[in-house]
Amino acid sequence: MMKKIALIIFTLMTIIGCTACGQTQRDLGDVMKKAAMNTVMGMGTVFLVLILISIIIYFLGFIGKAGNKNKTVKMPEKAPEKEIAVEAAAAVPEDLTDDLELVAVIAAAIAASEGVPADSLIVRSIRRKTSPNQWKNV
Prior knowledge:
Layout: H1 2-21, H2 28-70, H3 80-91, H4 100-114
């Protein structure tokens, strides 16, 4: 009952309000045309702004490349004798099999993360992984 009364009051107020403002009741076609035009204008504005942002980002790439060109400095070449000495030192393999300190550190880290005493862990082997890209192992 209250819903019907509220609907009647709302309808009367709408009719009185439209008549007082000088608006006449429009047909559905006019309303839909205006709604479609608002939609097209809104979507057009959004896409134009997105295109403008992409153009700005594209030109920012040129600014970054121009800044890097100015900072390029050629390093003087090193003496070949020093390079040979470094390569010879790097070629000597390190003996990691008797590194008890490394085993203790790894065992303590695993024990702390698992929440068990370090005495209950057994380290059977330690191998160094060598790969050109360190992020492959992550």
